Amino acid sequence: MPMKPGQILVADHEGVYVIKMIGDVRLTLCLSFDQFIDSMFSRDDFVSILFDLTEAEAIDSTTLGLMAKISIFAQERRQVVPVVVSTNPSINRLLESMGFNDIFEIIHDFEAPTVTPQPLAAGELDENAVKSKVLEAHQVLMGLNESNAETFRDLVKTLEES
Known about the structure:
- It is a single chain.
- By secondary structure, this protein is α/β, with parallel strands linked by helices.
- The chain is 46% helix and 23% strand.
- It has helices at 30-42, 61-78, 89-97, 127-144, 146-161; strands at residues 7-13, 16-25, 48-59, 83-85, 105-107, 118-119.
- A six-stranded mixed sheet has the order 5-4-3-2-1-6, with helices on one face.
- α1 (30-42) runs parallel beside α2 (61-78), α2 packs across α4 (127-144) and α4 packs antiparallel against α5 (146-161).
- The N and C termini lie far apart (36 Å).
C-alpha cells in the first residue's frame, strides 16, 4: 500500500505550538517548515512545542534535522524541552536511532489536543535554499551523537563541496 503524501500541519493556542506530521514527510516541505520555525521563535507568547507524529508514516532526515533544530533552539532560547508523541514502532525506532531521546520528551501513548491545524505549503523550491536547509539539517543531526556523525559525514561533505 503506497504511503500518503506528506503534510505538516501547524497550530498554536496561547503560545503552545502543535506540529502534526502526516504521511511520508519529505524534503519538499523543508523551506516552509524552516520559515515556520523562525516565526515561531520570534513570537513573544511562545510557551512550548508538541510534535504529533501519530499519523506519520515516514520522516526524512532533513525533516528530522529541522525537528532537532527546534529542540535545540527551544532549550537554548526558552529553556523548553519539546514533546514528541509517536505511536508508530518504526518512527519510534527512527527517533531513538537519531538520539532524539536526549533532546525531546517522547511519549508513546497520548490523547491528541483538539486544535484546528493549518497545513504548511510546499512553496517554491529554490535549489540553493533547499541545499542550504538540507546541509543545515544534517549538520544538526550529526551534532547529536557519533553514530549520526558517521552516518551523515559523506552527505554533508558532498553538500559542502557542491
